[in-house]
Specification:
The protein has about 260 residues and is α/β, with parallel strands linked by helices. The protein has 2 domains: about 150 residues, HAD superfamily/HAD-like (Rossmann fold); about 100 residues, Hypothetical Protein, Haloacid Dehalogenase-like Hydrolase, Chain: A, domain 2 (2-Layer Sandwich). It contains 9 helices and 16 strands. The longest helix is centred in the middle third of the chain and has 12 residues. The protein is globular and about 50 Å long. The two termini are about 15 Å apart. The model has no long low-confidence stretch (mean pLDDT about 95).
C-alpha cells in the first residue's frame, strides 16, 4: 500500500552549524527513493512557504507550513488561514501583559513586537529570508498565520512560561532562545486531516517524521508516527517508532524500517 509521508523540517530534515543551514547527507536521496517507489511526500512544518522553497526548491510540491495554517497540494494552495485583526489584538493584549517578545509569521514578512535589536538580528538569521522582520506596523496590516516567541535567556523564558495557557504548545528551538507557537485547533494534526480529506487519502495510509513539541499531535494522528532520536521526550513517547538521530541517517533508516525504500 502506498503511503503519504510528512516530514517536519527543523531537527528532522534540517539543522545548522557555523556555516548556516544544511540537510544531512543522504536525507533527500532517501526521500527521492521513496518517491520513486510511488509514495507521496510532503513537508509539515512551522516554517513558511518562502523558507521551504529557498531551502528545498521544487523537491517538495506539497507542504503544510506555518504550523498548519498554509496547506499546498501539488503546487496549489488548498488552505490559507490568517489571524483576524480582532484575534491579532487579542494576542497582543495577552502577551504584552507578560512583556513577551514575539513575531507574527507571514509568508514574506514578520511583524515583530517588543523586540530589541539583538532579537531582530536573531530572528532574521532564523528565518534566513533577509530583512524579514517589520517593527513599525498596525494590527490591521498583519497577514500572519503563526507566531514565534523570543527570549533573552533561560530566566526570561521561565518568567514568560505562565503566558502559554490552555492548549497552546510552544516548540522551543535549539538553544532555547526562540520557539514557535501552536494554538488549539490550529496545528499540524488538523492540517494533515484537512490535506487527507481534500486529497482522498486515508489517515491510516499516512506516515510522519518529527522531533519537536509541535509534532506530538501530528505523530499521534497519522497512521505511523516516527520520532527522531534527537527529538524531545514528548515526541518520542507519542511515536510508534523512534528512528536514529537526524545526523546519523535517521530519515533513511526510518524509511527502510517501514519498508518504504
Amino acid at each position: 500500500m502506498k503511503k503519504m509521508i510528512f516530514f517536519d523540517i527543523d531537527g528532522t530534515l534540517l539543522t545548522s552549524n557555523n556555516d548556516g543551514y544544511f540537510v544531512p547527507e543522504g536525507t533527500l536521496q532517501a526521500i527521492a527513493l521513496a518517491k520513486q517507489n510511488g509514495h507521496g511526500v510532503a513537508i509539515c512544518s512551522g516554517r513558511q512557504e518562502t523558507f521551504i522553497k529557498k531551502m528545498f526548491g521544487d523537491f517538495f510540491t506539497s507542504y503544510i507550513g506555518m504550523n498548519g495554517t498554509h496547506v499546498v497540494h501539488e503546487g496549489k494552495t488548498i488552505l490559507q488561514k490568517f489571524f483576524s485583526t480582532e484575534r491579532i489584538r487579542e494576542i497582543m493584549e495577552h502577551f504584552d501583559a507578560y512583556n513577551i517578545s514575539y513575531n507574527f509569521v507571514g509568508l514574506h514578512h514578520g511583524w515583530g513586537r517588543n523586540l530589541n535589536p539583538e532579537m531582530i538580528e536573531l530572528l532574521n538569521q532564523v528565518y534566513h529570508l533577509g530583512d524579514y522582520i517589520i517593527t513599525d506596523w498596525e494590527p490591521e496590516q498583519v497577514q500572519a498565520g503563526a507566531m514565534d516567541c523570543i527570549f533573552l535567556d533561560k530566566d526570561h523564558y521561565e518568567r514568560c512560561r505562565p503566558a502559554f495557557t490552555g492548549s497552546m504548545v510552544l516548540n522551543l528551538h535549539p538553544g532555547g532562545r526562540s520557539g514557535d507557537l501552536s494554538f488549539p485547533n490550529q496545528d499540524k494534526a488538523q492540517a494533515i486531516r484537512y490535506f487527507c480529506e481534500h486529497t482522498g487519502i486515508d489517515l491510516k495510509d499516512t506516515v510522519a517524521f518529527g522531533d519537536g513539541s509541535n509534532d506530538v499531535t501530528m505523530l499521534k494522528t497519522v497512521g505511523i508516527g516516527v520520532a527522531m532520536e534527537n527529538g524531545v521526550p514528548e515526541a518520542k513517547a507519542a511515536a510508534d517508532y523512534v528512528t536514529d538521530s537526524m545526523l546519523c541517517g535517521g530519515i533513511e533508516k526510518g524509511l527502510r524500517h517501514l519498508g518504504l525504500i
